[in-house]
Every structure is written in C-alpha cells, then in structure tokens.
Write a structure and sequence with these properties.
- The complex is a heterodimer of chains A (278) and B (123).
- Chain A is of the alpha/beta class.
- Chain A has a single domain, classed as TIM Barrel (Alpha-Beta Barrel), CATH 3.20.20.450.
- Helix content of chain A is 45%, strand content 19%.
- Chain A contains 13 helices and eight strands.
- Chain A has an eight-stranded mixed beta barrel, surrounded by six helices.
- In chain A, helix 3 packs parallel to helix 5 and helix 5 runs parallel beside helix 6.
- Chain B has 123 residues and is α/β, with parallel strands linked by helices.
- Chain B has a five-stranded parallel β-sheet, with helices on both faces.
- Chain B starts with a strand and ends with a helix.
- Chains A and B meet through helix 2 of A and strand 2 and helix 2 of B.
Chain lengths: 278, 123
Amino acid sequence: MLITLLDKILAPGAISTVFQPICRIDAAGFKPVIVECLSRGPASTNAGNAGVLFEYAQLKAAEPLVDRACIATALDAVAPLRRPEKFSLNVFAATLVRDAGIVGWIGERLNRLRLNPSSLIFELVEHGEAWDTEIFLKSLRDIRAMGSAIALDDVGLAHSNFQRILDCDPEFLKLDRCIVRNCGQDERRQALLKSLGLLAKDLGSSLIAEGVETWEELDTLRSHEISLFQGFLLSKPAPAADLPKLLAAIALRQPAMPMSEIELIQKKAAPRVLQRTI
Amino acid sequence: MRILLIDDDQQLLNAMAEFFNAGEYQVYCACETEEAVAMVRHHRFDVVILDLELNSIEGLDGFGVLKALRQSCPRTHVIVFSGHFSETVVEAALRHGGTKFIAKPASLRDLRAGVEEVCSLPC
C-alpha cells in the first residue's frame, strides 16, 4: 500500500516548529512583541518546504488534520519557553469551517499547558472555496470568547479579501510581502500602503508588515505609520533553543543582519541611514 | 539540472531516482498528484517526467498535473511517461503541454536520452 505524503506529515513527531519574531519599531527602539510559530513538515520529504506542506494540505482537503498536527506541535514547543511576548499560530480559514471543534480543542490544550489564551493570536490563512459563513463566524466568536486575538494573514494576496476583513474584524492585518517588496521605490505600493493604513485605522486594526528585508523597505513602511514588522531584516525563523538569545539581541537593537550587508546599504543610501533615529 | 520524477509506482520511482541521482541531476520525487502539483507550484524544474496514470482520491490525474505545470512553469520540459499510448492519449498529452511522449515500458537509458533530447530544445 502506498504511504502517502500525508501519512508522513501526520506521523507522530514529524512536524517541527520554528519561530519568527514580530517587532515593534519606533523611536524607543526595537521590541519583539509577538512570536509567530511556523510549522515545517518532515525534512526528509517534499513537505520540509512550508509552501509545499500547506499547498499539499489544501489539495488533499486535509487542512483540519494538518492544522491540528501543526498547532499541537507548536503549543508543545511554546509552553516551556514561558515568554512574555504573545505568540501566533496559523490556521486555515477552511479549518474553522470544517472543524467546528478546533477552537475548543485549542482552548483545552492551552489550559493543560498553562498558556494564557489572551497571549494567542490566530493568524487566519485564506484560500477561497465554497464557504459556510455561519460556522466560520461561530468559530471566530469562540476565538474571541476564549480571549484570543485574530490576525488576517497575507493581506493583499489572492483570497485575503475585503469580505474576510469584514467577517473577521481582525486586531491585526498582516501585509503580504507582495506589497512590502521594494515599496521604497514603487509609488503604486506606497499608494496601497497609504490606503491600507487609513483602512486599518478606521477599522481599529494594526498593520504588520511581513517579509521586510531591507532598511529602505523598513523606512518606507515606518513613514506610512506602520510600527510592527517581521522579516529577514530582523530575523530568520529560528528553533526554540535559539529564541531567547535572538529576542534579547533584537531588543538590544541588534537585528540579525550581516555587517557586510549593512555596510553595503549604508554605502547605497548613506543619508537615510545616518538620519535614522531608531 | 533539476528534475522532478512523478510516478505512483514506488519501485519504479526509486529506480529512476537512483539512476538520475548518479548523473548530474538534482532529483526530486513525487508519488501523488497533489504532491506533484504542490511541488511544481513552489519549485522550478528543468525537466519533469510525468506518469499519466496517477492514483488520486481528489480526481486529479496526470493531466491535472500537466495543467498545473503549464500554469506555474511554462518553460519546464515535460516528458509524459505512460503505459497508455494510444494515438488519442499521446495527442492529448502533447496538446496539454507535454514536450515528449515515452511509452512504458522503457529503459532508464531511453529516459535519459529523452531528457537529453528535450534539454537540447529551446525553452
């Protein structure tokens, strides 16, 4: 009998979790405020690539199974860390529709691991399919009743659309890298940032810029009054063992960036870097 | 050169992987249609060897993979490797974007010759 990739993904201990900080950057400096839990499939399989893992889960219509496995692993990894930052977990929006019990199941695990639900942010990943809005909204109410927050992931990309913003009323909107990329040199992206900033303000949501990789992008995003950032400029995803040191380094305004790259950027954009206030 | 081998015959897949691994190829394998589609949407390959008769519970078949390949990687050469080689199937495989059709059974050397042939073609 064929052992499928799904069998390998769902095997005990097959999924692992790495962590990537989301930082508030303002005049006071760098402060990690959220740690996103990122799941990886078995390294010896094609699902070791996160994109393949979740694309495959969707194609197999196995989002609830894979989400449960990823969340269980992530919570077990988060619990012993005892970090003051909030932590976020990715959940397919489809899972909240097809697996009506998942929020209660997460609540039980949080309780057992003595993790505070108010420290948890559900990052909803969308993929646009036939939808049962009633069940979806019930799951969102369950999340809120538990005391957790909601972030809408990949805003600006494919199916993370305005209807979903209305449905979710999210505390956070995570701007996809497609908007962030080279935003310092692209007036159209800056127009989107301006509009999304106004939208977020009116909705009472905070924007998180994902995939920030250069100082120029960071400067541009900050000039649009965004203060929460995630990306390789600050840190690549790291295993649990490295997290305390990594977060301490960021808090000391030492973003994980090779000096050679900083020097290169300083040469290219010396006036901007010299005027930096953070 | 990056090559993706797609076949639900695990023994054949292993044999092909071992054979191409010994050459100058970076070899990736997939034995389900969903795995194959996920791979072609997230990686780039120079050549794909695709079995048309793949098992799938979701109704995706080799032609579904071929369609995903043509959408995601229009420049990738696809060798359709199938035990069904009626004129209709061969014509459909090439019409859906296959670069070359090789009928099963074929030797590993035949497959390598096919790979070398399609790689010599313009993208």
